[in-house]
Amino acid sequence: MTEILTTHAGSLPRSPKLIDANAARPVGADGLTPEPTDEFREVLRQAVADVVAKQRSIGISIPNDGEYGHLMGSAVNYGSWWSYIFDRVSGLELTGDDHFSSEPVRSSPGNVRLTTFPDRRDWTTFADAYQDPTSGITVGTQVTFPAATGEIAYSEAGRELGQQDIANFRAALDASGYERGYLAALSPGSGSRIVDDHYGDEDAFLDAWVEVMRPEYEAIAAAGLIVQIDDPSIAENWDQINPEPSVEDYLAFTRKRVDAVNRALVNVPTEQTRFHLCWGSWHGPHTTDIEFRHIAPLLLEIDAKYYSFEAANVRHEHEWTVWEQLELPEDKVIVPGIVSHATNVVEHPELVAQRLERFARIVGPDRVIGSTDCGLGGRIHPQIAWAKLESLVQGAEIASKRL
């Protein structure tokens, strides 16, 4: 029997103890970086050991550290996958000028530019629903993001935090008997979405983020771990361009960000790399998401072995048929989302099996790893999140037996 493996997209629910310990840490003089303490380090170390052990007990094949080193000080948080890097990069400053407070930016043919977060086309199309607290739409707690006010660089503090994540995770893997696991890291393109008050040139700012992120990728790979590049921007940027651009203009805009990922990964073995694409984890209509068929070929240009993407939520589940037209190179593996972060309904194991079988019949069961659409931590209740992972494993077992 060919076993279909399971994993997840990254963030897992934090314990109240870890959230409280993070929220209680004093912030340094830059207003961004929480001061580390021995007490917090121990809380974090034990939390990582516990979450890896829990993944083992459920039966997850390829675990991570729950992104616990990507710190959250509240139970609801949609942005720690991105904001964690602000603790690790010099040249950033809280200026009050961010993507929530700035004026909207308009694009034109041949001149694609990101606008502000509140000016997203999905948010403006459904403005009444977004502003109604009873609508069920959630985007997480919006925080003030820094701007680049000087030359950015991966700081010494960043290297220490990265090594702390690696050490905690390696120890937890060994304790739970895992042979492999992955750590998530921000993409250069997603990093470059913060406000640039220094470089004054989009391409130069993107190039700077390539140099910033390369040390983190290389450190993770050097420890024998898989590097997951988190890059919602490849798909999500489409909704943050106003008015809607042509597909051709968007692909030209996005290809620069794909090239940036590849340049940052130049010293990381392809077999130790996986790439995560999504359309943004907020719980909203998503009617302005770009179709997967437009960007899937570009996805395969990224120098990774594993490709993680949303395939379970109701806006994108139908797009599994893309793989009937798009040939997956023989040395590549797809990691589709099989359970969703966007609903409190726990998927039935039989539905999980059916979804996995769709992909397995196209590319082969040995080239499919069942996953989640996005990270579950900070987005749905912990009890529901763990139930979804249990259902994922049960469904993979059903599919494996049938295939």
UniProtKB/TrEMBL annotation:
Task: Please give one Gene Ontology molecular function term for this protein.
Answer: zinc ion binding
- Per UniProt, what is one Pfam family of this protein? Meth_synt_2
Domain annotation Cobalamin-independent methionine synthase MetE C-terminal/archaeal: ranges: 207-397
Output the superkingdom of the source species: Bacteria
- Cross-referenced InterPro entries, in alphabetical order? Met_Synth_C/arc (IPR002629), UROD/MetE-like_sf (IPR038071)
GO BP term (any one): methionine biosynthetic process
Q: What is this protein called?
A: Methionine synthase
Originating organism? Brachybacterium alimentarium
